[in-house]
Amino acid sequence: MAEVASAPVIFSRSTRPPRPSPTTSPEVGRAAFVRDGSLILSEGGQDSALIHLHRVKPTRSGRVAFQVENVLAASSAAWALGIDREVIAEALGSFDSDADQVPGRFNTFEHQGATVIVDYAHNPSALEALSLSPWNPSPQAVGPWSTPPREIAETSTSFARVKSSAMASTG
Q1: What does the pLDDT look like over 142-163, one tens digit per residue?
Q2: Where exactly are the structural domains of the chain?
């Protein structure tokens, strides 16, 4: 992709540096990845920690994989736009996925010893990502679920597949 892109490309990966990495292949240029719980920005073989994920609330200390991916995408976009790294880190540290800032987007609440998640998993991949979060309810859990009418068939099938898979694995 880098060969045909009209702008510099930033490679990202949540678990380790992308391969080839900027450290081993100078032509890669820039990359964003997570190492030892920190979001790392790498350029020209120089890695620098931007922020530790325990300071980025939506990631729940890096345990919610799809939120880590969202943070990588947002920080990479800001970095590509030339926004100062300190400003990016400050923004990430002050953001929360709460009902005031982003209603319906992985909002978590504690109620009588239970964790309640409100998330508008609006398509099959979002539903699957939500099901993989560490707060995934047991297969016996009951809760409301909805989807936009235009996607109901595909999302309903995905929901059934996710729940069937969870029941089979806890079996």
Answers
A1: 455 555 565 555 555 555 555 5
A2: 1-96, 97-171
